[in-house]
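Hello,

Our lab assistant flagged a job as stuck in the queue for most of the afternoon. It eventually completed. Since we weren't sure the result was trustworthy after the delay, we are filing this so someone can double-check. Below is the sequence as submitted and the structure that was eventually returned. Let us know if re-running is recommended.
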Amino acid sequence: MKGTANDYTRGFGSGLCAILIVYAVVMSFRLYMLTIDEKKLDELYRKSTDERYALIREKTASGSFTVSSFIICLGAIVTSFFSKEITIVLTAVIGVMTVCKLCFKFYYERKY
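-- returned structure --
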């Protein structure tokens, strides 16, 4: 029996919320560890102000990636009400974009 779009939307939304909650917990733990260890905090500050990392962020188009990811995620959420196939394709596009971004980041970190 094929589920309705409403069932699929609930499942997609639940999965998205679960991912966001796990991400929030991981980032909270990471920030907590930074407050304990001064070396890691200094290293993070250096990375955020270093010209090399600014160049890497520029080369990998970090800002446009973030904006386009949010737009595609919003599109996936909206289309989950109408079409399961389009939502799966948009989710796959987000995955491919993420893999490409990571590849570019690792490439430019080794190059510069």
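-- support follow-up --
The delay was a queue issue, not a problem with the job. The result is valid. The radius of gyration is 18 Å. The chain is about 90% helix and 0% strand.
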